[in-house]
Amino acid sequence: MRSLQRSSGTKQDAMQSIIMKILQGNTNKSRIADALLPQLSPEQEADILLLSEPYREKDCRTWLSSTRKNAAIWIPNLRQARVEQHGAEEHYVWARIDGITYVSCYFSPNDSISEFEVKLGMLEDHFRDTTQELVIAGDFNARALEWGMPQTNKRGQLILEMAARMDLMVLNIGNTPTYRRPGFGNSIPDLSLASENIAAITEEWRVIEDYTGSDHQYITFKIGREMRNRTDPRNKIPHRWNYRKFDDVKFAEKLLSGIGDIPETSQIVKRRVDAEDVVSSTMKILKCACDSSMPIIKRFINRKSAYWWTEEIAELRRNCLKLRRKAQRARRGAKGIDYSSEHKSVRKELRIAIKKSRFHCWKALCDEVNADPWGLGYKIATQKLGVLGSVGTMTVKEMQKVVDELFPTHPLRTDSESEIDDSNIPAFSMGELEVAVSSLKNRKTPGPDGIPAEILKEKLKIAPRLLLKMYNTCLSAGILSARWKRASLVLIDKGKGAINASSRYRPICLLDSAGKTLENLIKPRLLAAIEKASNFSERQYGFIVIW
């Protein structure tokens, strides 16, 4: 079972151990900006999106909005960013994610100074006494020298006074404008603020130059300087190899060259230690052969392009960006008018292309559902229902509690090793091994060692004696190796009940293929012994435990 330990160390160490990529921006209620957002998010590898003036609410459980729908927080993948608590007010929404409170807000330029001051005061009153670290981001429509504007206005002064009282620091760097609209000039209304500890571990704050479809350019920054803490349970997932790029020649070479590293043993092994050494050495050779013959699958969570994304749409987006830049540089001259007109025309083409692509992809999805009811359509539907994501919303302590309830601990057995009379126990034959290995199903998720069943089948072709020796060693010692008693635990959400209740989840334990093979070797012998002993009683009902 996958270890679920809590990370140790100071609060500062805990924050540095987590890297979060933030994407901040104002979509300006633009349909194109809303359509491009699912594509920009994976391109920028964003874990959390802090948005102002969203076009509309997304129909998903990872979208949080203010009560007036003018600010939003979008977490594309709850397994990557765990929401502990959240709330909303008229002009801002907040979420506590991995111990840090993120606030997305929007202050309209149409508000008077007195209205702005009242709204800013509400924001300050809510978070002034919080003990959590803060990140506040949004469109404040204010000017100040501290974030690159040539002068400070009344709004900017009020924000700086609030930041001083709350020990917040301005994260903005340089004077790159975030508001760019041909014919209307440039400005920096988008502001990022953070508490002192967060500012100390914030890196790579910048204004991206990608075409967003909005009058605003988006901001990205990263919180954290180190890789995730190794004691974080989300990082205990074993790596896996890409079997589709399997090189059988390299696999055979590495496998055959490592056979000499297996310790020599007598034909009959009595001690557990000796058997474990043989198993460990054999599996180590197998892993080395996998490393040399297959690339490891890189784990990019939520890094796929939008399902409707095409090269044609990408080219149109590049053209939009190019023409908008030309229109901005030409300003109000005759060329500027021409470029603005061209930009509007290409922007319209982009909107139509996205709409057409979405329509065709939806039609293809409907056709696929008829052919394969458990395919992509099923995955999308379950995600909409929130069936696949709520495990990520639990804290480590809550997750540990659920696991403890599902798998209660028992006193450890302290049986001493005893001599086994193996004079009447025949060793496994090559035929038995071939049947056991062939019964393993392909394209199944492997256990903690990450070795797929297909690799054991390849190993059987190249070095059958190597596998046979390992299993016969286990048989003569009367053991199931300790490494095969571990499993990767997956909790499947049933979609009902409290999130931290154990009854809400259906546990699945993923076992190593090598351990399954030993079980497949022993199973027919157990069944034969049971049949020889007059089989089961007629009163035997229900499941029969044979291992």
UniProtKB/TrEMBL annotation:
Q: Give the residue spans that cross the bilayer.
A: none
Gene Ontology MF term list = catalytic activity
**Domain Endonuclease/exonuclease/phosphatase stretches:** 101-219
User: Which Gene3D superfamilies does the UniProt record give?
Assistant: Endonuclease/exonuclease/phosphatase
Q: Which CDD domains match?
A: R1-I-EN
Q: Which Pfam families has this protein been placed in? A: Exo_endo_phos_2
Matching entries from InterPro entries are given as:
Endo/exonu/phosph_ase_sf (IPR036691), Endo/exonuclease/phosphatase (IPR005135)
Q: In its UniProt entry, what is this protein called?
A: Endonuclease/exonuclease/phosphatase domain-containing protein
